[in-house]
Amino acid sequence: MSITRRSARRSVRVLGVASASAALALGLSSTALACDISEFSAEAKCVGTKGVISVTDVDASGTPAVVTVFLENNGADVQRVGKPTEVKGSVTGVTIDFAEDWKPSATYRIHVKAGNLVDADIKQNLTTPSTACTAADSASPTPSATPSPSASASTPAQSASPTPSASESSSTAPAGTASNAPSPAAGDSNLAETGANSNTPLIAGIAGALVVVGGGAVFFGMRRRGSNGSR
Q1: Which domain holds residue 76?
Q2: Which one of 57, 91, 106, 215 is most buried, counting C-beta atoms within 10 A?
Q3: 8 Å CB contact between 51 and 133
Q4: Dihedral (CA of 72, 76, 78, 81) sign
């Protein structure tokens, strides 16, 4: 009987220790998975020419949290940026963006509220870069306009092409007129050749001699008749 009681007591003690260990382990694991403000971070960056403030949650428990962003000036809230936004973190991290045309070296306060676990600001306020998004874009070199080729380079000048001179134009004009004139008929050409023949002076000389001889014969004949009549 006594051995049985001792065995039962030992079994109860073992169960008690195991239960306590399990409860302790569960408590530690719950504490480890609980949402904490250190799991939130913020960054100011540019998306194209627009500025955004990004808040990242790496809470592995995925506890829903509401993030609110405020613009600060001398330690006081100037205005709220956008609307409070809910985020559920993960081991790899979940990021939400707040559209904000932030100014260089501006200060923002990011507040996080996750149920009864977190109700605090991110430990350090966010300070934006010293260069705005639009200024960065304007600083980038812009391609200059491609110079268009000038008229003198693309097309040859009119003075380069040879132009006929006044003497050439005057000399070529009569040639064109002569070429357009009607050609003489066949008969006209024969007459011209006859008049220009080298035998023409010889014929004229013979005809003149015959005229002189005939005139002399007539003269002597008439004289002869006159002498016979006087007798």
Answers
A1: 37-134
A2: 57
A3: yes
A4: positive
